[in-house]
Amino acid sequence: MTSRDFEILYKETRLNLEPTSPSSIVQIRVASQSSFGRTNSTRIPNSAAADNEKGYRTRNLATASSIYYRKHHASPRGFHWRVLENDTVLSIRAADVCKQQNTADAPLILNLRFPAAIRTSCIGFSDPEDHDVLCVHVVDHANQLHTITLRPDHFRRRSATDSGLGDACKSYSPPGFGFKHPHRLVVISSEQLIITMHDGGILRFDRNRAHEATNGTMWKETIYNVAGWGQSLRGLVPFQRNATIRYDKINMELTAATATAITSMGHDTSFLFTVCLDHRMRIWEAQTGQILYTGDILNTKRDPQEVGKWVIDPSQVNLIRILDNGPGQCLVATYSPIGAGEFKFWKVKANNQGSVHVADCFPEARLTPSSPSSLDVWTLADFSMALQGETPELWVLWKNNTTYRVQKLTVHSRSETPFADGWKGVFVENGMPAAQSSGPCDAVDSTEKWLDLIFFPGRFSKSTLETALAMYERGLGTYKETSSKAGKSIAESICSVLGSTTTLDRSGAGGMDYEQFRGANETQWMRFWRLLLELDKQRGEALSLVFDPEDVIVWVACADSVSAIRQCSGLDRIYHNLESPPKGGEGVAALVTAGLSFVEGFSDSMSQLSRAALRAEIYEDSAKPDDERIQQFFDKAGFWRQITEEDCSQVVETLGQNFRMLTPRLYDDLFDLITSDGETNSQELREPFTALGRKVIVHTVQDTIELHWQILFSQLILLVHMEFEIDDEEAALHSRFDVGSVYRRLIDALRRLEQLRWMAKTELSIPVSKADRSNSGTASPTAKRGNEETYSITALEGLTGHLFGLSESNNMPMLSSITDLVLDLCSPGSSTELSIWLLQCWLLKHGRPDLALELNPFAEQDPFSTYVQGRVFLAVNQFDTASVYFRRASVGLSVSMKNVERHSASLLDDTEWNLLNTGLPNYYAHIVNLYDRQKAYSYVVDFARLALQFIHGHTDDAPGARSEMLSRLFTAATAISHFDVAHSALLSMDDEAMQKSYLRKMVEKMCETGDNAELISLPFSGLQNKVDDILLEKCRATKDVLNGVPYHRVLYAWRISHNDYRGGGAILLDRLQKLRLMGEGDKVAVSAAEDALDTQVTRQYLLLINALSCVPPKEAYILEEHETGRTAAETHALKNGRDDLEDHLDELAQNLQASAAAPSASLGRSEEAEDDEALVERMKRFASLHGGAAPLSSRKLLTLADLRKQYQQELDRIVAMQNNQFGFSAEEDDFMDVGA
């Protein structure tokens, strides 16, 4: 018998148990009673990954695991617990799939570290009705009973455990454990516990509320034995019984209970059901310790001489389950592991007098579970009961080493054949996908294929990858415990290690042997892959089966994972039951079988060509007719070249001659199976999903995508093949139904799946939000080191995760609600719209423009989608392409619209949204801002010009917008040295203050970049004097005229170009004076090859003389200012507001007046005197203009003759220096010949 003999109605979804971030794990050390029950919390240790299989199992694989659901409180309601690290750590986390509205998630994992190894069979939980807490009860091998009270905040905020648990953790050493050995723990309530002992008795613990006041013991103990009598602890004397069985170094009595269950059946007292080693069920009244019933668990009489054949192994723990089905009664299921195993159902009734009535529900029927396969040894490891309406259901868990199977049986309690429906199977995905083979013509390197396979979201845990890499390095002999992989991701480390094992050698012909290199590389990756699979296989060992009665979902708790059981969709049922399809699905099953069988024979190259042809159809919106599109796909795919007659005959055999089975209705039935009603996700959520629930949805979507893709892709290939297979026009498919319509529907469905596939496989790191960090209380060690704490999330969850949940009208079980939600998400007509532009915005917001760029083939063509594509290209620095998209979207995003929905995943703020749909100027201003952030100034110039073109002066905001764009235009043009554009913007500015400021920036920029010629060539209409003033200010502030920006030369050129030769001479004189102060006049050439008379000073004299030579003789003068060397009289005169120049001008005016008054003055002399007077007036005006700049300076009028004289004196001074003739006083004009 194989698993195919069971009808598959359910599927599993396997989830990893990795925390979202390292800070999600909180380590809490539980102290023993000797430490007064005090606890402390510590940070998670940064221990290295295990480098061997034993260490890997110890750290990551649980020895016991299950899920506990609270009855009285729901936030959180479920808790998943695991026992790790040699049974010293009890790890607990919230395990709710959905939560109440506005309720915070509980992401923390509490690792309770015990001083001694805990007994995995003595772990229990309780839910006090009057307090919203979780009570944990644990018995360790040191025979201490630990009671730990955890609040919901402990699972939400790290700060709740920063100072330890304090009085919330209490330890107690029961005296009864001194001579009795605990075997099983049963929790009745937080106030009452029962522990079954090795001798068949039970030890009841009642909480002592008075112990807090009297500092007494926490629990009051009462012992009961199988005879039903009870006495105090001091009066009990243990004795040895005859029939025992050895287990865990203890002789167990056959009356010892190995499996237990508790129920109240609506009464004030509780009833303890036990299955004992002697194959009997006993019912205890918990309050009195009285045994109310004893009987064989299969209701069969045994021969006393064959008691040993029916002894149950003490390791069996899951042998009884109770289902309350009314007041005062319950349904009990017992399982006998003896032989092939058998179930028995009991109807138990209890009355108020303390008695129970036990009846066999089906005395004439036997239920022997069918193992998944008769070829292997399977063990029934666990089972659970559920009540669907009034019909009980039995769920069982089979194990074969690390492999498991789940089955379900519906029990018809009122039927003569209660088990007639038979066992229904759960499809468990055990195999891993294989990596595609690599060839020399592949566009993608084989390493990328392996990385995509290994790092598919949720496939392997990080600890598995790290351990496999360490073991692989040990096998190579290159592993070092102290080797540092700091700064490297796990993917980089794997590539580095595997890449070091392969070298590129030369072939026998002398060339590079790429084929050998490729083959050796594939071999190393395959070895690492197999090692990963061996480690990962251990993670899937099933430990327990749990049924959630409130949400109605089944869980399988494994060593390092958890699997959710969900209901199959219609297409799932057909695919997994092709040999025996459900009623009404025979036609679709035949169609699916034909397609899968046809494509299965394709070679790798044929499959690649077909997928390439499909990508062209998915990504491109073709306007061609349907028949041309089908013909084009047929030609591009080219699969007709390799199909054989056998392949074609199989299709004919399945679908009939000329494919007569195909009808439009058959394809409608197929599409109905992948189409939801469209209302699953469109309603307001009543209970949104938690992080665990969203993870279930994402992994279910991944599985559904692969299944739907496989079926629909094969159907597309099959449809195209059948369309061209029949030569008879009357029998062709297109003559019977619209083939083009089916083709389009298949393409649309595959396009939706391709988008979802990308979103489900693309994973990125998201920084932990401030709210989550504040909830965590304290920063993690990673965050303290300065690295921002992140967590991984798929693009699917990031974009659509907030839509996952139960709607207001959803009253379906969780195992079917998950399927409906996923089916709607994958449906072509889904109510969940996959807005590619919104996903791109989300990726851009989180700094992944590379991923956003991959989505461009799916992007829509509406204006905002086009704009978002421009943002994507802008983020990857493809500015030119981005400008094309921005221009294309300009008209659509400038038109005013009402009620615009502002959704951009926070990529655009309110200010940016306000610039859209409010006219072209505002839109282009927004684009200018975008390019300005990227410092792409040439595009800032382009779009600023466009904005200025559309700014009209009649609007109120036009002046401000125009001023802003001119400012942006000027700044960008100046930054890229487009000074002609900056000049135009400058002249267009109306704000004089801004114009003056930008003029200074432009002049300084042009001088600093050496664009002096362009500066002089620009007209600067109306701003020439301001340019001169700016340059003059820079010249006066310059001390070192030989280094830095040559402002003197620029101003000289500026004034000469504007025919201001005397002004040019003045700035040359200023430079001459500063050269003298720098001592440049004394730097005389000493080599014979250089001209000693050619110095910086003499050259400056020549320039000055040449400049004044261009001025008419009467105007060939300049004003010289002296800052140093003043006499006392000069200083006094300056302080009185006069200097020697003014005195000279006054004296000259007096002489002219005297000569004009002389009687001998002739007519010609009068004309000359008038000219002299005019010259004096001009000189006075010149002095008044230049005197205000330096009122305390000594000024002197220099004519061209004076400058020539000074030049000659400078030459004589140089010659004297060459002849070693030096003067002793600086005030003397003559030189002394010291050599005479």
From TrEMBL:
InterPro entries: Beta-prop_Nup120_160 (IPR059141), HEAT_Nup120 (IPR056548), Nucleoporin_Nup160 (IPR021717), Nup120_helical (IPR048884). Coiled coil: none annotated. Residues 77-572 form the Nucleoporin Nup120/160 beta-propeller domain. GO terms for molecular function: structural constituent of nuclear pore. Residues 614-746 form the Nucleoporin Nup120 helical domain. It comes from Podospora appendiculata. Residues 839-1008 form the Nucleoporin nup120-like HEAT repeat domain. Pfam families: Beta-prop_Nup120_160 (PF11715), HEAT_Nup120 (PF23300), NUP120_helical (PF21486). It is found in: Nucleus. The keyword GTP-binding does not apply. Keywords: Nucleus, Transport. One of its GO terms (cellular component) is nuclear pore. This is Nucleoporin Nup120/160-domain-containing protein. It comes from the Eukaryota. The keyword Nucleus applies.
